[in-house]
Amino acid sequence: MTSTTVEPQRKAAPTPPAGGAPVRARRNTAKMGWQIALYALLIVIALIYIYPFLVQVSTSFKTDAEAAVSPVSLIPQVWSTAAYERLFLRSDVLEFFTALNGYRDALLKMPQGNADAILPAYTWGVQAQPITFGHYLSGYATAFERTATRMREAYVRLNASPLGAAALGTSAGSALICRLP
Fold it and tell me: Is 42's pLDDT higher than 90?
């Protein structure tokens, strides 16, 4: 048995009408031109929206004096990471506060078990009147309290955002919007 295979007939590709290919090419070129113009417009709009963010980031790398003189320039003349150092210093100061408070609390609890302990006090290296152990440790606790007060006062200045403020030109709500008649 021999089988004969019948090959399907291939249809000839339709021939384009005379002058059809250049018209299609012109349409594709015009369509591509509009797409390029649209993408260019979208890029310009994106740059307008992202420019304030870029100014904010570049200002964070400026010194305070340079940021006051030229706040809108994108490239700082002198690069500084002081704002970021100050930003991360805040968390270190808070950890120090926690440690100082814990040490001070432990220092104040110490004399409770040694209420009768007497120590010699010294003034300018010369032995003075005897004092209790609690009185001696309260002197150190008072010094820690003065340190904590100075640190609290410094933290008020340190807690200001070193990277700048929020967006400008926005409103907090409908009460601030001017309505025209």
Answer: yes
